[in-house]
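Q:
Got a chain?
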Amino acid sequence: MVSVPPEALLEAHPSAVVKQVGRVDVSKHDCVGSGSFVEVGKSPMGELVVGHVDSLWEVSANGSTPGFFASMNFILGCINVQHNCHRGECPIELTKEEDMERQRTGRKGWQVEQSDQEHYIINSGALRNAVLHQRISGLPMDLPDRHKWTEAIDLGLGIWNIGLDPIQSDDKHFDEYQPGSEDDAEGETDSEFARSSNSSGSDNDEDVDGEEDADGETDSEYDGEADDEV
């Protein structure tokens, strides 16, 4: 963090009072401070430049400023970036200060030590200030039509289903309920119960017609014997 006003700023305002500012609220959601990455331009659709804020200074007098200074009126918002550690070949060093109960312990922990302040990756998918992120990243942002959405969904489902059972469509609804096929308490359906009842009824009729008495004789045989004796 720079603690001394830049020489170019002092030269541009030799009679002005220059004092350092901790932060500036650009909007309700954007707060610019030392270390912030900002987009600078006259309008969101105009030419944009990414800037890394070293320090903030307030000049109490009006006047022109050199080109590498930007007025807060032209800062459109903050952007989200991540350091490109792959390109910078950032090492892992035992340099992280470890605290306990907000007190320094004197112990060191491992952390990624950034090797430079030049290479960063812009998060073009950031939800806040999405238009600015997309504009400054320069990525194509063509909105897909319904046919492309269908192709993308089919492709995604195909990748999702690799090694798994395919997902069935919900277009057809099969109703497993069939009237008269409810299971009773014993696990038999009504139709099965009706068939079993009919079969039992026919067996009972045969038993009634040919019913044997206690001596093992049927009623018809008993009647025949009575006639012979008479």
Observations:
- The radius of gyration is 44 Å.
- The mean pLDDT is 72.
- The helical segments are 7-12, 85-88, 130-137, 146-160, 190-209, 219-229.
